[in-house]
Amino acid sequence: MNANGREPVLLPPLGEVLDFLRLIWAVDHQLQRTSKSMEARLGVTAAQRFVLRLVGRFPGITAGQLAVTLHVNPSTISAVLERLTRRGLIAKRRDPRDRRRTFLGLTDAGSVLNVDPGGTVESGVQRVIDELPALKVAAAREVLSTLAAALQGSLAQPAQVRRGRAVAGAPAPAPSEPVAARKAQA
Length: 186
Prior knowledge:
The chain has a domain at 16-145: Arc Repressor Mutant, subunit A (Orthogonal Bundle), CATH 1.10.10.10. The chain has helices at 16-42, 46-57, 63-70, 74-86, 108-112, 121-131, 134-156, 179-185; strands at 90-94, 102-106, 161-162, 165-166. The protein contains eight helices and four strands; from the N terminus they run ααααββαααββα. The chain starts with 15 loop residues before the first helix and ends with a helix. It has a two-stranded antiparallel sheet. Strands 3-4 form a two-stranded antiparallel ribbon. The protein is mainly α.
């Protein structure tokens, strides 16, 4: 029986790529669940808390700097900041030299949430980092960074296949190399 009280489903081997994706989906699912739990307990989502932690660590940071740090679109940060400002957790201060630019800081209420009460995404990540050897953490960081860059690059390239059909004039995909052959070349 698994944690849900169900019999585990035994799947046939998925292959290297699909099995890796399955793990990513599991992490994403747990991030969403933990975020929902955080919102119920703390009043902020995981993303909102991450923004609070960064503003607390770097008082005077700008929305643009947050967007770059978090690898998100500036409009995404603007929406998060608007919610946190409305809730009285973040204060904005205009740059006297450039009225378009705003510096961010925590309010007293925001400072209360700038500590880790446990049961957060951050505490889960900290627990894993503390338990794993530094080389494994560095390897995981490299895999995740490389994957993020590859996915970003794939968005910039035109699609070769749409709805399961090859696009006219697109080159045929290259056959996959066996895993052992790829690893032997490395």
